[in-house]
Design goal:
heterodimer; A: mainly alpha; B: alpha/beta; GMP Synthetase, Chain A, domain 3; 15 helices
């Protein structure tokens, strides 16, 4: 499953109730009332467990977490970055 | 003296001072005042009369603030509703108070359109947001917010731009103010301070919310007492992340406008780093919070690396701060004063602990605030002495008028006071006072657990659990039990990186609590459900297990 779909699945399973409007990839989770402050904590726990990275305090910002699109982009960047570091450690570039 | 005078006088003293900062938009006192005047003019022209109820159903925004003052200036009563309300509750509230008008956002249509058929008293709806999304049918007299701004300029009666092509005029009797447009002028008012300013709906144990009626005098009295003990000055800059539907959040605006300060308005604590950045950028001096917000904040790795030196005071209410968290907050913001406070919507606030008492009495919520009296009574209403647990009674001009449309429940909490005709508030909260008159919250009268014949306060168990390192949040609820009568269940949220087991928790409890107060059931969770004020939602927890 692609990252976008994994995120969407998690959000739909945990936060969306029947009868809610369809959630677009770019819709703000906060403004749509899908997620609140404790919801963000659950989301962070899920991301850290699923993708095996640590999210820093400074990364807890809407640009990284407030829409399915933003979250996917954020994860992709994190994964690319760690892959690059691994390559560099191996002596490759 | 009326609540809107706070705004009007600050607009007179500091017209060009920034009153409100929201999503990058900065509004001066004069701008807020003039926009509120326009809203008032328009509401009157649409038939809103003295004492009518107008509801505001918006996320925290400049429009929320402008609307509330506009409604007050029209001699009407504002209702700041929780933006997370769903259709059924929204409908209930609008019908309960027979609201004549609603101010909302097009992004709330999912919830709002559901009420159109079922609220007969609703005459018109003002929409902010996207003009194209405004419904063209089904909705009573919809109007676009921006058109109110343009309708009333130059005091002329132009054919309007409103959706229904109503011919709208804005009439005002010019007052002697320096203003370019007559409609920017303050509308004349007939209200006196005994009249209602707002109705705040608060959760009831029966399930349906109750409307707390507050007069202008109630609100002014409370705001005056609070700004006195917080020692507020015009230089104060408050960050308000609390919902405006919660009196704690609403009063940040009212108080700031009273003393001529600035409010940084934020919608959510979901992204704490964003809030910290705002606090640094705007050099915030005052930070009102609730325990759940502080719990989230304290999960961040190292608060001390941020320059929050501008912070002068931090306040807490809604629920008690665990003593462990009090220590960590004072550690994170060493130059700020921390105020532990207690109150209820029915009288806004009751008490505060002077910050220099925190070392000696961290578990106390202090003494009654200025211009107020409190005492503790037994089941017969007789005052009790120090150390004796009883119900807290509050006397003062901050005590509500009653519950809207519910004289029966009102009479259960507002009872005769010392002077003829006066009423005092029976809080339904159990307290004890120490020898020096400092108050200690014991629990809600109706929340006490009866187990093995003993009364246990859920709070007492929660406090004991907070003393165990690694526990961030706790909720204790009773469960029926064949043998014990009621059994105690504790829901626990552990701090990141702590792998406490049930055994660890029980070991700790055995040290801290009497045997009958030790939880029979323990459940670890990643998070606990909250209600809109940020308090832990025990009702949902109970419902999950069929209570």
């Amino acid at each position: 499953m692609s990252i976008v779909n994994e995120i969407r699945k998690f959000i739909e399973e945990n936060f969306i109730l029947e009868g809610d409007d369809h959630l677009g990839d770019e819709d703000s989770l906060l403004e749509k009332g899908i997620i609140d402050s404790t919801g963000v904590l659950e989301l962070v726990a899920f991301l850290e467990e699923t993708y095996h990275f640590k999210i820093k305090d400074e990364e807890l910002v809407p640009e990284n977490l407030d829409s399915i699109k933003n979250i996917s982009q954020f994860i992709q960047n994190k994964l690319n970055f760690s892959r690059e570091s691994v390559d560099r450690e191996d002596g490759r570039s | 003296m009326l609540v809107q005078n706070f705004l009007e006088e600050s607009a007179h003293r500091f017209p060009n001072k920034v009153a409100l900062i929201h999503k990058g938009e900065r509004l001066t006192y004069q701008e807020v005042d003039q926009k509120a005047n326009k809203v008032a003019q328009w509401l009157r022209s649409q038939g809103i009369q003295r004492g009518d109820r107008v509801a505001i159903f918006l996320d925290s925004s400049a429009e929320s603030v402008i609307s509330l003052f506009g409604i007050l200036k029209a001699d009407a009563i504002f209702l700041m509703l929780s933006p997370t309300l769903k259709t059924q509750k929204l409908s209930y509230i609008l019908n309960n108070c027979q609201a004549k008008a609603l101010i909302t956002h097009t992004n709330k249509l999912g919830v709002v359109s559901g009420v159109f058929g079922s609220v007969p008293n609703l005459q018109f709806v003002i929409f902010t947001g996207n003009k194209d999304k405004i419904p063209t049918s089904g909705c009573p007299n919809p109007i676009f917010w921006k058109e109110i701004d343009s309708l009333c300029s130059n005091n002329s009666s132009n054919p309007s731009n409103s959706i229904n092509s109503q011919h709208v005029t804005c009439n005002s009797q010019p007052e002697t103010r320096n203003s370019t447009s007559a409609s920017d002028l303050q509308p004349p008012t007939s209200n006196i301070d005994l009249d209602l300013a707002t109705i705040i709906y608060t959760s009831g144990s029966t399930g349906n919310p109750k409307g707390v009626m507050l007069t202008h005098l109630n609100m002014i009295s409370a705001a005056t007492s609070i700004t006195t003990y917080l020692e507020n000055v015009p230089e104060d800059i408050i960050i308000d992340v609390l919902p405006l539907s919660f009196d704690y959040g609403l009063y940040q605006i009212l108080m700031a406008f009273k003393f001529g300060g600035t409010v940084v308005l934020e919608q959510s604590f979901a992204f704490p780093y964003k809030i910290i950045k705002q606090m640094i950028k705007e050099r915030v001096t005052g930070f009102p919070g609730v325990p759940t917000m502080f719990a989230i904040l304290l999960q961040m790795e190292d608060l001390k690396k941020y320059d929050l030196s501008s912070l002068r005071y931090v306040t807490n209410t809604a629920a008690a701060l665990p003593i462990e968290h009090i220590k960590r907050i004072r550690d994170a913001f060493p130059q700020a004063k921390l105020y532990s406070m207690y109150g209820l919507t029915e009288c806004k606030r009751v008490s505060y602990l002077p910050p220099d008492e925190l070392d000696r009495r961290p578990g106390s919520v202090g003494k009654g605030m200025p211009n107020e009296e409190v005492w503790v009574v037994d089941e017969n209403g007789n005052r009790v002495g120090p150390g004796v647990i009883g119900e807290l009674v509050v006397r003062g001009s901050n005590v509500m008028r009653g519950y809207w449309g519910d004289p029966e429940i009102t009479d259960r909490v507002l009872k005769p006071g010392p002077l003829p005709g006066e009423k005092v508030l029976y809080t339904g909260d159990l307290f004890k006072m120490d020898e020096e008159g400092f108050l200690y919250f014991v629990g809600r009268k109706d929340d006490m657990i009866k187990t093995k014949g003993e009364r246990v306060s859920p709070k007492e168990v929660e406090n004991a659990l907070y003393g165990l390192e690694g526990i961030v949040e706790v909720a204790v609820i009773p469960l029926p039990d064949d043998i014990l009568g009621q059994a105690i269940k504790a829901y626990i949220v552990r701090r990141n990186g702590y792998s406490l087991t049930e055994k660890d928790v029980l070991r700790h409890c055995k040290k801290e609590l009497e045997e009958f107060a030790i939880p029979k059931y323990i459940e670890f969770r990643d998070s606990l459900p909250k209600i809109s004020s940020g308090k832990i939602d025990k009702l949902t927890l109970k419902q999950e297990i069929g209570q």
